[in-house]
Write a structure and sequence with these properties.
Elements: H1 4-18, H2 23-33, E1 49-54, E2 60-61, H3 62-68, E3 75-81, H4 90-98, E4 102-104, H5 114-118, H6 122-128, E5 133-136, E6 139-140, E7 143-144, H7 149-155, H8 162-169, E8 175-179, H9 186-190, E9 195-199, H10 206-219
Parallel strand pairs: 4-5, 5-8, 8-9
Antiparallel strand pairs: 1-2, 1-3, 6-7
Helix pairs in contact: 1-2, 4-6
Length: about 220
């Protein structure tokens, strides 16, 4: 149930990895082929797989949970297999340490950002630059705009709100951006030692996306 371009990307990546190429090399090849001018780095050249444990079923690969099963069921556990042995890409941690700003996008904190943050050295790199790190809430009005982050928060016994997400990033982000809809959480978020910045976080057009980027960078003094 994926699009042809998604399948083509996966097939190319798998073929190159089986031939012995590093994931970072393959990622750079794909970026060049698509005309992406920004430098795109994977979190690691080592193998890490995300599994989701749903109530009443054995743990399954994330794509099976999300695509095939459409994120149905109560999430009980997230497993990041291989993360304890994997090494963060040195270029990625170096980029964090020398960047004027690091932005944690409004992605799923468990299966999108979670694997990256689980690698040794990544949280440490972010913590060392905490004042220049901003996180954007994926929860707006008690639910996600896209994806199963709200279901995962609820299933794992956490608050389904910007505050619930902010608690996950309090040690690595000095700025927390939340939607205007949820500005009532700003005070509690600031008690975590983070600067709360309410704004419009819904990126439905390039213009709204650009405005959000300006707000986030402005909050970081960039």
């Amino acid at each position: 149930m994926l699009g042809d371009r998604d399948f083509a990307t996966h097939l190319y990546r798998t073929e190159r990895m089986r031939a012995g190429a590093r994931l970072s090399t393959i990622t750079a090849e794909i970026a060049r082929a698509l005309g992406v001018r920004s430098r795109v780095l994977p979190m690691s050249d080592d193998r890490v797989r995300t599994f989701v444990k749903v109530k009443g079923r054995p743990a399954m690969p994330f794509q099976e949970y999300f695509v095939r099963n459409r994120a149905r069921g109560t999430v009980e556990r997230i497993e990041l297999r291989g993360a304890s042995r994997a090494r963060a890409l040195p270029a990625a941690t170096a980029a964090i340490r020398r960047s004027a700003a690091t932005i944690l996008a409004p992605s799923n904190p468990f299966v999108s950002l979670g694997p990256v943050l689980s690698l040794k050295g990544v949280r440490e790199a972010l913590s060392s630059r905490r004042a220049q790190v901003a996180a954007i809430s994926p929860i707006v009005g008690g639910k996600t705009i896209k994806g199963p982050a709200d279901k995962m928060l609820r299933g794992l016994g956490m608050e389904v709100s910007p505050l619930g997400v902010a608690r996950l990033y309090r040690d690595i982000a000095g700025v927390f951006v939340l939607d205007d809809t949820d500005r009532r959480y700003a005070g509690e978020i600031e008690k975590l030692g983070m600067r709360a910045v309410p704004t419009d976080t819904i990126m439905t057009t390039p213009e709204r996306s650009a405005r959000l980027a300006e707000v986030v960078l402005g909050a970081l003094g960039v």
